[in-house]
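Note to self: keep these together.
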Amino acid sequence: MLPEIWTWDPGRLEAVHDYIQWLFPLAEPSAFNPLAPILTDDAIAAFRADATLRDRLLRSLTLMLAFYGLALATEPGGAPRIEPAADFAPKRRGWLRPGDHNHLRLTRILTSLRLLGLRDHSRALFACLAAIARDHPDAVSATTLAYWRRAAS
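Structure:
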Protein backbone atom coordinates (compact mmCIF):
# COMPACT_ATOMS: atom_id res chain seq x y z
CA MET A 1 0.00 0.00 0.00
CA LEU A 2 1.23 3.50 -0.75
CA PRO A 3 1.04 4.75 2.85
CA GLU A 4 3.37 1.93 3.89
CA ILE A 5 5.87 2.70 1.11
CA TRP A 6 5.84 6.37 2.15
CA THR A 7 7.33 5.27 5.51
CA TRP A 8 10.24 3.29 4.05
CA ASP A 9 13.79 4.31 4.87
CA PRO A 10 16.38 4.97 2.15
CA GLY A 11 17.92 1.52 2.51
CA ARG A 12 14.64 -0.17 1.73
CA LEU A 13 13.88 2.25 -1.11
CA GLU A 14 17.20 1.23 -2.67
CA ALA A 15 16.95 -2.50 -2.01
CA VAL A 16 13.36 -3.13 -3.10
CA HIS A 17 12.77 -2.94 -6.84
CA ASP A 18 9.06 -3.53 -7.36
CA TYR A 19 7.49 -0.48 -5.72
CA ILE A 20 8.42 2.39 -8.04
CA GLN A 21 5.83 1.20 -10.56
CA TRP A 22 3.12 1.63 -7.92
CA LEU A 23 4.27 5.11 -6.89
CA PHE A 24 4.65 6.27 -10.50
CA PRO A 25 2.46 4.24 -12.85
CA LEU A 26 2.76 4.43 -16.63
CA ALA A 27 0.50 3.64 -19.57
CA GLU A 28 2.64 0.67 -20.64
CA PRO A 29 3.46 -2.55 -18.79
CA SER A 30 6.56 -2.65 -16.65
CA ALA A 31 9.40 -4.80 -17.95
CA PHE A 32 10.43 -5.44 -14.33
CA ASN A 33 7.14 -5.87 -12.47
CA PRO A 34 4.35 -7.76 -14.24
CA LEU A 35 1.93 -6.99 -11.39
CA ALA A 36 2.36 -3.21 -11.67
CA PRO A 37 -0.67 -1.11 -12.54
CA ILE A 38 -1.04 0.13 -16.11
CA LEU A 39 -2.62 3.53 -16.63
CA THR A 40 -5.71 3.74 -18.78
CA ASP A 41 -6.99 6.90 -20.43
CA ASP A 42 -9.68 7.04 -17.72
CA ALA A 43 -7.09 6.79 -14.92
CA ILE A 44 -4.98 9.52 -16.50
CA ALA A 45 -8.06 11.75 -16.80
CA ALA A 46 -8.96 11.04 -13.15
CA PHE A 47 -5.50 12.14 -11.96
CA ARG A 48 -5.65 15.29 -14.05
CA ALA A 49 -9.09 16.14 -12.64
CA ASP A 50 -8.60 15.17 -8.99
CA ALA A 51 -6.34 17.26 -6.76
CA THR A 52 -6.34 14.53 -4.10
CA LEU A 53 -4.81 12.02 -6.51
CA ARG A 54 -2.20 14.56 -7.60
CA ASP A 55 -1.41 15.32 -3.93
CA ARG A 56 -0.73 11.62 -3.38
CA LEU A 57 1.54 11.64 -6.41
CA LEU A 58 3.33 14.67 -4.95
CA ARG A 59 3.82 12.79 -1.69
CA SER A 60 5.47 9.98 -3.64
CA LEU A 61 7.60 12.54 -5.46
CA THR A 62 8.68 14.15 -2.20
CA LEU A 63 9.72 10.73 -0.86
CA MET A 64 11.84 9.96 -3.90
CA LEU A 65 13.35 13.44 -4.07
CA ALA A 66 14.52 13.05 -0.47
CA PHE A 67 15.98 9.66 -1.40
CA TYR A 68 18.03 11.32 -4.16
CA GLY A 69 19.04 14.28 -2.00
CA LEU A 70 16.75 16.70 -3.80
CA ALA A 71 14.02 19.01 -2.55
CA LEU A 72 10.86 20.55 -3.92
CA ALA A 73 10.48 24.31 -3.56
CA THR A 74 8.08 26.85 -5.01
CA GLU A 75 8.98 29.86 -7.12
CA PRO A 76 7.44 33.22 -6.10
CA GLY A 77 4.86 32.83 -8.89
CA GLY A 78 3.90 29.37 -7.64
CA ALA A 79 5.84 27.26 -10.15
CA PRO A 80 7.63 24.23 -8.73
CA ARG A 81 11.42 24.18 -8.50
CA ILE A 82 13.52 21.15 -7.65
CA GLU A 83 17.05 21.61 -6.40
CA PRO A 84 19.76 19.74 -4.54
CA ALA A 85 19.02 19.55 -0.82
CA ALA A 86 21.52 20.08 1.99
CA ASP A 87 22.21 16.32 2.04
CA PHE A 88 22.74 15.98 -1.72
CA ALA A 89 26.48 15.25 -1.48
CA PRO A 90 26.17 12.05 0.59
CA LYS A 91 22.97 10.87 -1.10
CA ARG A 92 24.23 11.32 -4.65
CA ARG A 93 26.79 8.58 -4.00
CA GLY A 94 23.90 6.11 -4.00
CA TRP A 95 22.67 6.90 -7.51
CA LEU A 96 24.82 9.41 -9.38
CA ARG A 97 27.04 7.03 -11.31
CA PRO A 98 26.99 5.70 -14.86
CA GLY A 99 24.30 3.12 -15.62
CA ASP A 100 22.75 3.16 -12.15
CA HIS A 101 19.27 1.60 -12.02
CA ASN A 102 17.98 4.79 -10.40
CA HIS A 103 18.39 6.53 -13.76
CA LEU A 104 15.59 4.27 -15.05
CA ARG A 105 13.52 5.09 -11.98
CA LEU A 106 13.99 8.79 -12.68
CA THR A 107 12.83 8.31 -16.26
CA ARG A 108 9.67 6.63 -14.93
CA ILE A 109 9.10 9.42 -12.41
CA LEU A 110 9.48 12.12 -15.07
CA THR A 111 7.06 10.32 -17.40
CA SER A 112 4.47 9.56 -14.76
CA LEU A 113 4.42 13.13 -13.47
CA ARG A 114 3.93 14.44 -17.00
CA LEU A 115 1.14 11.98 -17.81
CA LEU A 116 -0.75 12.46 -14.57
CA GLY A 117 -1.09 16.23 -14.58
CA LEU A 118 2.13 17.38 -12.93
CA ARG A 119 3.96 18.46 -16.10
CA ASP A 120 5.52 21.48 -14.35
CA HIS A 121 6.98 19.18 -11.69
CA SER A 122 8.33 16.87 -14.38
CA ARG A 123 9.99 19.80 -16.13
CA ALA A 124 11.37 21.11 -12.82
CA LEU A 125 12.85 17.70 -12.06
CA PHE A 126 14.37 17.51 -15.52
CA ALA A 127 15.90 20.99 -15.13
CA CYS A 128 17.47 19.90 -11.84
CA LEU A 129 18.75 16.63 -13.32
CA ALA A 130 20.16 18.42 -16.37
CA ALA A 131 22.08 20.79 -14.10
CA ILE A 132 23.38 17.84 -12.07
CA ALA A 133 24.43 16.11 -15.31
CA ARG A 134 26.34 19.23 -16.36
CA ASP A 135 28.12 19.29 -13.00
CA HIS A 136 28.83 15.53 -13.09
CA PRO A 137 29.38 14.69 -16.78
CA ASP A 138 31.00 11.34 -16.02
CA ALA A 139 27.98 10.17 -14.01
CA VAL A 140 25.12 10.74 -16.48
CA SER A 141 25.45 9.68 -20.10
CA ALA A 142 24.15 11.73 -23.00
CA THR A 143 21.77 8.86 -23.71
CA THR A 144 20.33 8.99 -20.19
CA LEU A 145 19.96 12.75 -20.38
CA ALA A 146 18.12 12.37 -23.71
CA TYR A 147 15.74 9.83 -22.13
CA TRP A 148 15.07 12.22 -19.25
CA ARG A 149 14.45 15.10 -21.67
CA ARG A 150 11.92 13.07 -23.69
CA ALA A 151 10.22 11.82 -20.53
CA ALA A 152 9.65 15.37 -19.29
CA SER A 153 8.59 16.84 -22.65
